[in-house]
Write a structure and sequence with these properties.
This protein is of the alpha/beta class. It is built from 15 helices and 11 strands. It has helices at about 1-10, 10-25, 40-45, 60-65, 70-85, 95-100, 130-135, 155-165, 180-190, 210-215, 230-240, 250, 275-280, 315-320, 320-330; strands at about 30, 50-55, 90, 140-145, 170-175, 200, 220, 240-245, 260-265, 345, 350-355. Strand 4 (about 140-145), helix 8 (about 155-165) and strand 5 form a beta-alpha-beta unit. The radius of gyration is 21 Å and the shape is globular. The chain starts with a helix and ends in a 14-residue tail after the last strand. About 45% of the residues are buried.
């Protein structure tokens, strides 16, 4: 039924896009790839406007594996036709770009543009203790995660860490978001008796995300799909949080181990125990799975995303959505200067945006 509703959504989506094209007379159509969304392709065929397709995931494979996709044949056909029908495909990581190339899209039509954020929404982070007080959270050392919670996020590993070290550290796990794994996480915390150390906020309005993330002492990405460019990563960077993340290719496109993050081996049995090197400071020994010759534990203060060569706000600013929009528009040889609202109109170039409503809900995107 859900997939049929997705197909039906093409009618209002196409009508809205048609109205936007008539009103704005755009130079290009920008669409975020959704498996059964054909509005952009239809408008391209009707109007001749170039279509830029942002791709965040191989949705056919992902939904077949995790969401019980029913319309397999149509889903496979849709993925192939959407990617091949776009004038330019914009994967959010090089890992995903190679997957798209392997599916038959020429490399000349693929440009990697990572996900981006609006820096103005994350411009004034609070001190973590002040942020905790404002949110009514306990003044504990806060391990935080934001986003839609699924099994592959491996948030249960944060609970395991809190349970294993409850007698040594005053830890709290804060999950900003919601998702199908919520109930299992709460049960996972109850079993070892650390239910009071887990707080799951539920869906948070976009304008409230920054004040919740400001309460994190350590922002953790315990697990992710190998091709993802998580929005949360750029939010963490912009807010200057200490970051612990898996040492995988897509993450290394953005982060540097022990410079702006602590990266752990996701295959190691105690890989996430590397977080202990952050929360315990310089004087403690690295746990199993993280010890490396010549490397001391890295304290929170030394994992500042803004302390890197050249100074400034670091890679988060480079991945601001307005900057990404300018790059995308220039692929079509159009002049663009961007604007503070994210670039519906940027310089001389006008962009008609097409996206699935379900993919744009705050806190509900699987790649946050």
């Amino acid at each position: 039924l859900y997939e049929l509703l997705e197909l039906a959504y093409n009618v209002p989506a196409y009508l809205r896009l048609s109205a936007a094209v008539r009103a704005q007379r755009p130079d290009v159509i920008y669409e975020r790839y959704s498996l059964f969304l054909f509005a952009g392709i239809w408008m391209r065929r009707r109007s001749g406007l170039p279509l830029l397709l942002e791709v965040n995931a191989p949705l056919f494979e992902e939904r077949s594996r995790h969401d019980g996709l029913r319309l397999h044949r149509l889903g496979r056909l849709a993925q192939r036709s959407l990617r091949r029908g776009a004038d330019h495909v914009l994967p959010v990581t090089a890992v995903l770009g190679r997957m798209i190339e392997n599916h038959g899209v020429p490399r000349s039509r693929i440009t990697v543009i990572p996900n981006g954020i609006d820096p103005e929404r994350f411009a004034a982070p609070l001190d973590p203790q002040a942020a905790k007080a404002r949110l009514g959270l306990p003044p504990r050392l806060m391990l935080g995660f934001t986003g839609f919670v699924r099994g592959w996020n491996a948030v249960h590993r944060l609970i395991d860490f809190a349970a294993a070290h409850r007698d040594r550290f005053d830890l709290q796990v804060l999950v900003v978001g919601d998702g199908p794994a919520r109930a299992s996480l709460q049960e996972h915390a109850r079993r070892p008796g650390v239910a009071d150390r887990l707080c799951i906020t539920g869906v948070v309005a976009r304008e409230d995300v920054a004040r919740h993330v400001s309460a994190f002492d350590v922002a953790v990405i315990p697990g992710l799909t190998p091709y993802a460019s998580p929005l949360k990563l750029f939010e963490y960077l912009q807010l200057g949080r200490a970051i612990v993340a898996p040492d995988v290719a897509a993450i290394r496109e953005v982060l540097t181990d022990e410079q702006d993050a602590l990266l752990f081996d996701p295959a190691a049995a105690h890989g996430l125990e590397g977080a202990a090197a952050v929360v315990r400071g310089r004087d403690a020994a690295c746990p199993p799975g993280r010890r490396r010759p010549g490397h001391d534990p890295v304290p929170v203060a030394d994992l500042d995303p803004q302390r890197r060569a050249g100074g400034g706000p670091g890679r988060a600013a480079a991945a601001a959505w307005s900057s990404n929009a300018v790059r995308a528009v220039r692929l079509q040889g159009l002049k663009s200067t961007g604007n503070k609202h994210g670039g519906v109109r940027a310089g001389r170039a006008t962009v008609a945006a097409s996206a699935s409503r379900t993919d744009r809900e705050v806190g509900a995107g699987s790649h946050r």
